[in-house]
Each structure stands twice: as C-alpha cells, then as structure tokens.
Amino acid sequence: MSICAFVVIASYFKNIVSSLPPGPKGHFLLGNLLQIPAVEPWILFKEWSKIYGDIIFIRLPIRPTIILCSAKAAFDLLDKRSNIYSDRPRSVMDELSSLTFNFAMMRYTSRWRSHRRMFHQYFHKGMTKSYESLQRREVHRFLKRVLDTPEGLNTGHEVRKIFSAIIVNTIYGINTTGDEYAHLAEVSLRGFSEFHVPGAYWVEYFPILRHVPSWIPGVKFKKAAEYYRPYVEQMINQPFDLVKGALVSSTCYSGLLSSNSEDMHKEKGTATPSITESLLKKLEAKYGGTPEYLEHEEIARNATAIGYGAGADTSTCAVQVFLIAMAFNPEVQKRAQAEIHSVVGPGRLPSSEDRENLPYVQAAILETLRWKPVVPLDTPHALIEDDEYNGFFIPKDTVVLAVNRAMMHDSEMYPDPSAFNPSRFLKDGKLDPNILSPLSLAFGFGRRICPGRHFSEASIYLTISSILQVFDVTLDPDFQGEDVQMTTGLISVPTSVPCVLKPRSQTAERLIQGLSV
C-alpha cells in the first residue's frame, strides 16, 4: 500500500511540474537564483522570453515565480483576474528597514484597503485640477532658478526639487525649497528600489538569515537595512509630526507651514488645504477620544508618507529622462516647441486646458515613459489561489513579475524600440487609440495600480510643457558618451542628467521674469 501511495503522490507532483509554464533549468537547491544578474535582470528576462514564451516559470527558494513579458499576459492575469492576483509577497528587507508602512507593498487585506481608501480620496482623477495652482507655482520657481543660474546648475537635482516641493506642500502644507525633504525621500526610496530587485538580497529567500548578527562578514543585508531605516523613519514621521504638533498648539502653524490653505481658499475651486491637515481634522472629529483614533492616525501617517516618498521619485525620473531625450533628439524638441507656439503663443506657459490640443507634446511624454521606463519591473504580485492560464498551472502563492521594459520594447508593438520616436503614437495628427499607451503599463496593473497616477501625470505634463516653452535643452559639452545609463532598481534612475537649459529668446526670458511665485 505504501508503495502504491508513493507512486500516486509522485505521479501527482510530476503532473503538476509538467503543467507549469516553461522556464530555464536551475540548481537542484537554489533553483534559478544564481542565474539572475545583479544588473538589469529585465534584459535576461527578455532573452528568456525568446526561448520560453511570454510567460516563464523560474524556481527561487520558497518563492516560485512567473515572469510576464507581454502586455497581453499581464493584462489577462493582473487586470482581468485581479481578484486573485492582487496580493504581495512578504519582504524581509522591508521589515528590517521600517518600510512596512508602504501600503503599495502590503498584503491584499483589509489593512491595505483602509490605507488605499484614505489615500485615494485625495488623489482620484477628479481631484487633479485642484492641485494645479500649487504645481504651477513650483514649476515657476524652477524656471526662475534655471534662469538665475546660467552656469554650474545641477539640472537633475533641480528637477527633483520641483516634485519634492510639490508633493511636500500638497501633502503636508510645508513650504520648502525641497532640499531637505527631497534628500529624505530620495534615500528612503533608493532602499526600497534596491530591496525589490529579484535576487538582490538572499534573506528574502532564506528568512532565517535575518537572525544572523550584522558584524559577521558578508552580511550586507543587515548593514543595508540599518543604513536606510533612520531615513525611512524620518520620512514617515518628521513632516507628519510637524503638522500634528502645529495643529495641536495652534500657535506657530502659519509660521512653520506654508500659506497653502489661505492662498488656496482665495483661489476658489483650484486647490484644497494640505492633505495631512485635512485628515487630522477629520480624524479628530470622528474618532477623537476613542481607542480607534490611534489606529486611524497610523493609517494617515503611512498614507501621507508613501505619497511623499514615491510621489516625487517617479515623476522626477520621468522628467529627467525627458530632458535627456530632448538633448539627444533636437528635431523632436523643435517640433514639440513649434506645436506649443502654434497653440499657446509665446506670451504664456501651457496650462492643463491646452493639453488636449498638444498631441505631439503628449506623444513625446508617452515616448519618454516607453523609451527608458522608470519602473522596468512592475512591483511583484502574488497569487491568492491556484490558477490556470493557457493550459499552464500556476500554484497559489506564486510571485508574479511583469517586465515592463520588455513590453515597452516589444518590437511588434513598438517598431525600432530603441529609437526615441513620439510619432509612433500619432495618426492623422492625433493620438492613435490603437497604439497601446505606456500609461497602461507604467503605473501598475489591476487593483494594485498606482493611486497617485493622475497627480503624477499632471505634474509631469505641466513641467515638461513649460520647459519646452521657454528653454532649449542641449547636451552638456563635457559629456562623453552616446547614451545615459539607468540604474538597476525597482525604480530606475538616470546615472546623470547631462543637460543644459538655455532661454529660447528674450521673450522667453521676460516671460520667466514675470512669473508669480
């Protein structure tokens, strides 16, 4: 009987293994872990897809993983079946570095829903217009800084200051030049980005290693977590506690915080008070003096922190990539500038109302997101229950990685994918609805799609269109090379932004000088 039982069980598991998606052979203990490169693993995943197809199975210790290299497979599973593909895998590195506050990586539970619900009420599409005056102000400040600093400007850093200031002012009402808060968010998100590259930290596959003392040689994961943890905790708590303390004391609020609320109420219908101020007042009114207050305050603290951290980073990188694209493709830049001139004229900056009338500018933004994707690997999903797709068995708890870069460089969908060509998104002078928009890939899938995407899109458009109106972007003459490389991480950042911004004309200079800030 025991032999028969063994044969039945062995046959069962053999059938399961044979029905899994195809993939490369691996080590009998470590699976494919040793095959994943430390740099740009998405390149290898793309190569594997040429051999095994657009859905690949790899074995990683305690983490069976499928890799999706086509938009169709990603939409079929992560969008259409999001009810079972919306979980997240556990991250030991997040636990060690205080990154568990990040609801983007929380398990698919009521806790995640509470965080997302609180965040979404301030960042859904209908709220986008309400933040435009604040976004414009920070873009104006950037344009003035560039004009006033004709030599030695760190263009990439100045771009980061735009979005850090926008998001910190929006979320916390703190009027800042962006330096201190930009640094906190940049370092914290760098850790998050590094931790979630497949194969980067073996503690994710052997969680027992977390108990190894940090002084033992080679235990780099402990040192990394210890380095990033204080930055993460400061990012979560420092601005939130500033607002909370000011509201409690009601004495120094106007001095510490921006005149955001006052200015915004003057411009009726164009803005709202800071999000943290609004949340704290709502929580006090609803839960003040009850045991539930602290629980909801923690959700508010976490939700605002992720907006502050991630909200600035991805937008910053997208604009940095755009500037690089313009420097290397002056003919694209000239065409976009000509379109703005014909629609807007030389006397003002483009606004959100002009966006639909600037199809080439919109196409250039889409091509930026496609050409050097800021998120080359989508944040990992996890399967809640067993599933079947195209005849393949996908077991419960499988990690699912969508390779955005492979999709955005799919030569069938985007011919000559290495070329920067905004015209691929146009037909008869309009955006072609038959060409898949990179916006459908860049912000995630299904129920885990980025809830701040509308805010990010609006900020990116206002920044890029304003730069094109008043500046020419050229390559730094000291730059040596044919291209700018991107870092390896969940968020991929240009290694440099070798771009020089010069006013297009005296009219452009006068326009910048006359901007209100």
UniProtKB/TrEMBL annotation:
It comes from the Eukaryota. It is a single-pass membrane protein. It holds the Pfam family p450. PROSITE patterns: CYTOCHROME_P450. Keywords: Heme, Iron, Membrane, Metal-binding, Monooxygenase, Oxidoreductase, Transmembrane, Transmembrane helix. GO terms for molecular function: heme binding; iron ion binding; monooxygenase activity; oxidoreductase activity, acting on paired donors, with incorporation or reduction of molecular oxygen. Its cofactor is heme. Heme binds at C450. GO terms for cellular component: membrane. Its main location: membrane. Pathway: Secondary metabolite biosynthesis. It is found in: Membrane. Belongs to the cytochrome P450 family. PANTHER family: P450, PUTATIVE (EUROFUNG)-RELATED, P450, PUTATIVE (EUROFUNG)-RELATED-RELATED. This is Cytochrome P450.
